Amino acid sequence: MSRVAKTTLLASVLLTGLTVWGVHFLQEQEHENMYKGVLRDDERRREKMRLREEELRESQRKRALYEQYQQVSKDDDVQTNRH
Question: The whole model's pTM is what?
Fold first, then answer.
C-alpha cells in the first residue's frame, strides 16, 4: 500500500473514532443535564409544598385569632366559599 493510502486510511479511522467519541460525549452531557433538570424540578416542588404548608398554617392561625373575637358559623363558611 502506498504512503498516501495509509495516511488516508489512518485519517479516516481517527476521524471516525473522534466522531463516535464526540457523539457519545454529547449524549452523556445531555443525559446529565436532563437529570439535573429533574432534580431542580423536585426541589421546586418541595419548596412550593413548603410554602403552601406555611400559608395553610398562617391561615389557620388567623382563623383561630379571628374566632376569638367573633362568632363563625358553618353557614358563614359555606357562603364565603360560594363567592
Answer: 0.55
* 72 Cβ contact list (under 8 Å, min separation 6): 63, 66
Residue among 57, 59, 56 at smallest CA distance from 67 = 59
As a whole number of angstroms, the distance between CA 13 and CA 44 comes to 47
**Beta strands in 7-75, from DSSP E residues, in sequence order:** none
Per-residue pLDDT of the chain (83 residues; tens, 9 = 90+): 899 999 999 999 999 999 999 999 999 999 999 999 999 999 999 999 999 999 999 999 999 999 988 887 776 555 666 65
